């Protein structure tokens, strides 16, 4: 999914730019299930699917002052995007 978000790092903008049927993507669903099961390797592919070309900018926006991109920040970003997308579709 190539995101056309106004702000490629803002969860609401990323959610607004998701294409129709984004939530029917089997690869995304499998990665989300793995992420929820605690597999940190699944977070990157989920972020890539949701943010598309904006994924590197998202990672940089989540980098802490110590230079580390925290898993918890990435997971929260994913959940924020999904929450915003669900609100948009309800």
In short:
This protein is mainly α and 90 residues long. The protein has helices spanning 11-17, 26-36, 43-51, 55-61, 71-89.
Structural summary, described in words:
With 90 residues, this protein is mainly α. The chain is built from five helices and no strands. Helix 1 packs across helix 5, helix 2 crosses helix 3 and helix 3 crosses helix 5.
Proportion in helices: 55-70%
Derived from helix and strand composition plus strand pairing, the structural class reads mainly alpha
Give the low-pLDDT segments: none
Describe the main β-sheet briefly.
none
Q: What order do the helices and strands follow?
A: HHHHH
Q: Estimate the mean pLDDT confidence.
A: 91
What percent of residues are in strands? under 5%
What is the helix tally? 5
Shape: globular
Distance between the amino and carboxyl termini: 21 Å
According to DSSP, the number of beta strands is 0
Topology:
Elements: H1 11-17, H2 26-36, H3 43-51, H4 55-61, H5 71-89
Helix pairs in contact: 1-5, 2-3, 3-5
């Amino acid at each position: 999914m190539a995101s056309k978000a106004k702000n490629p790092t803002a969860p609401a903008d990323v959610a607004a730019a998701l294409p129709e049927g984004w939530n029917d993507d089997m690869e995304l669903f499998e990665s989300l299930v793995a992420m929820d099961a605690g597999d940190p390797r699944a977070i990157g592919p989920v972020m890539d699917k949701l943010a598309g070309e904006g994924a590197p900018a998202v990672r940089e926006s989540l980098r802490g002052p110590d230079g580390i991109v925290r898993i918890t920040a990435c997971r929260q970003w994913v959940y924020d995007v999904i929450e915003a997308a669900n609100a948009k579709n309800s």
